Amino acid sequence: MTFKPKNGTLQKQLAATFSLINTGASRPFHQTACVHISPKLKPEKRRMAEEKGVKLLDLWSSPFGQRCRIALAEKEVEYEYNEENLSDKSELLLKSNPIYKKIPVLIHDGKPVCESLIIVQYIDEVWPSKTPILPSDPYARAQARFWADYVDKKVYECGTRLWKLKGGEALQEAKEEFILILKTLEAELGDKKYFGGETFGLVDIALVPFTSWFYSYETYAGFSIEQECSKLVSWAKRCKERASVAKTLYEPKKIHEFVGHLRKKYGVE
Amino acid sequence: MSKSNVVLLDHWVSPYAMRVRIALWEKGVDFESKQQDLSNKSELLLRSNPIYKKAPVLLHDDKPLCESLIIVGYIDEVWPSPPLLPSSSYERATARFWADFIDKKFAEAATKLWRSARSTEELEAAKKEFFETLKQLEEFLGEKDYFGGENFGLVDLALIPFWSWFSAYEKFGGFKIESPKLYAWMQRCMERESVAKALPAQEKVLEFVCTLRKILGFDQ
């Protein structure tokens, strides 16, 4: 991703001081480049540079952050990506999301928007001309919001239990519940290309980041999602053919490695 | 348009159902309310909301809509006047955030007060959480007349139904809610016809909660 300056002296000055940097080999970094604002800028201009534009406070592995990244990519919006260290949260994160202190947070011209599905809808409203994320019909919109909310209420919480529980009856129950959740979603998908029909939309964006975690869920809970919900797996493949999804999602093996670290951290293994 | 093309599968004591009633009355929409017996759910309810099997459900020309904030969003789009959401995208996102906060944090903390706190420790934790969310809401309200600013809107509508439950929270939480700002806001909302019609009297809700607690095994 490159920074494209608009007309004007200030923007040219900013463009000259911008450089693309990598956050370093020690931390995994997603494919979108990070834009750095030079400390050489005078404080006032630095403040303005920081205020204007789009910033995303995020964590590379977060499915909620990925929803926002996919939406921004679908809309071809340029933005600055800030990788947060959740064990040492930045001043900006704490100031921008004082209620939950969580990522993702979208900061647009200095104003923060929190909660991933609210951020995605905001992105859809502010940049309406490209690829609509929500349909125009009010009933279809309500249905899309209902199913995105279902994904929020069910998939993350149950999926987390699949890798966080040590085993036994609780894990078995979580597995059965998860399969039921996926089958419910699969029934809603039906024979459609995407949840929104012909158009990739809100529900697809809400769910697709979790598909990178499927391998981990299957491994730790001992089941095959392909066997249980083959239509959903086909849908995931179709989504990954989209550039926005392909460049945002990590390979399942990479997520699996990350989940391995989490399991050690939480004393599961 | 006949009354029956908008049907609400309703429950008189549910704050979530109250939200939908308020929204419909704010818009001047005629509707038929069908009270649901949640201990013996109707065929219509189970068919209309197979995922959660809960009220409220709005049936518009027989098409079901579930989840109160989603229903209210739909009502606002289909009957745009007067608007419940602001026109600026940023303010809309802010309104949605706080309505969601009320669901995720406030409502959950409030429910713990009367429904799940079984020990003194659990009750104390529930009270602390309840007051913290109330304080956060108060801060957001600030000096405004309504959460939406000058006009009654989504966040006001999302929160005001819980006012009818305040006697129950106070009784089972063992406290008195002292907040002049929130109290003034509640009075302002209660002056609206839609709200006054939608909210049951606090005493009736308290009676309902007492009965429900006995069924759940509290207060034996």
From TrEMBL, chain A:
Top-tier EC class: transferase
Superkingdom in the source lineage: Eukaryota
Annotated ranges, domain GST C-terminal: 137-268
Database matches in InterPro entries: Glutathione-S-Trfase_C-like, Glutathione-S-Trfase_C_sf, Glutathione_S-Trfase, Glutathione_S-Trfase_N, GST_C_Tau, Omega/Tau-like, Thioredoxin-like_sf
EC number assigned by the record: 2.5.1.18
Molecular function per GO: glutathione transferase activity
SUPFAM superfamilies the UniProt entry points to: GST C-terminal domain-like (SSF47616), Thioredoxin-like (SSF52833)
Catalytic reaction equation(s): RX + glutathione = an S-substituted glutathione + a halide anion + H(+)
Job of this protein: Conjugation of reduced glutathione to a wide number of exogenous and endogenous hydrophobic electrophiles.
Protein name, per record: Probable glutathione S-transferase GSTU1
TrEMBL record, chain B:
Residue ranges of every copy of the GST C-terminal domain listed in the record: 88-208
Reaction(s) this enzyme catalyzes, per UniProt: RX + glutathione = an S-substituted glutathione + a halide anion + H(+)
Start and end residues of each GST N-terminal domain: 4-83
E.C. code: 2.5.1.18
Keyword Transmembrane helix on entry: no
Keywords: Transferase
A Pfam family matched in the record: GST_C
EC category name: transferase
Database matches in InterPro entries: Glutathione-S-Trfase_C-like (IPR010987), Glutathione-S-Trfase_C_sf (IPR036282), Glutathione_S-Trfase (IPR040079), Glutathione_S-Trfase_N (IPR004045), GST_C (IPR004046), GST_C_Tau (IPR045074), Omega/Tau-like (IPR045073), Thioredoxin-like_sf (IPR036249)
Keyword field contains Mitochondrion: no
GO molecular function: glutathione transferase activity
Family designation: Belongs to the GST superfamily.
Role description: Conjugation of reduced glutathione to a wide number of exogenous and endogenous hydrophobic electrophiles.
Protein name: Probable glutathione S-transferase GSTU1
Source species of the chain: Dendrobium thyrsiflorum (Pinecone-like raceme dendrobium)
